[in-house]
Automatic annotation (TrEMBL):
Gene3D superfamilies: 1.10.1660.10
Name of the molecule in the record: DNA-binding transcriptional MerR regulator
Domain HTH merR-type residue range list: 18-88
InterPro entries, per the entry: DNA-bd_dom_put_sf, MerR-type_HTH_dom, MerR_fam
GO molecular function, one term: DNA-binding transcription factor activity
Cross-referenced SMART domains: HTH_MERR
Entries under Pfam families matching the protein: MerR_1
Domain of life: Bacteria
UniProt-listed CDD domains: HTH_MlrA-like_sg2
Keywords for this protein: DNA-binding
PROSITE patterns linked to this entry: HTH_MERR_2
Amino acid sequence: MLEASHNSELPVIPGKRYFTIGEVSELCAVKPHVLRYWEQEFPQLSPVKRRGNRRYYQHQDVILIRQIRALLYEEGYTIGGARLQMESGSSEKVQTVQLQQVIPQMIAELEGVLELLEVEA
């Protein structure tokens, strides 16, 4: 498991539409049973459930899980405190975490586009 200060070292989120609970577990360095628990504690987190009650997370769900992880593991919030921070939505810490997650993703995507352009040129 990554140390609390290493949330920025999590892998880049692939450009897929849906992720299984196992994939999200690896992308966020959180065990699947923790993800299921967080679904009960954070109303914003509700993955799509399909055949046999299988969970399928979308890209925004993975970012949300990383935000929750940062609040709990890096900022030291309790579940209740993290829930309040997430519900407020305007918290500077939540916005900072969002930027920390989105910027590396955007850089990776732009590097991929650059590679495609270089190959075609």
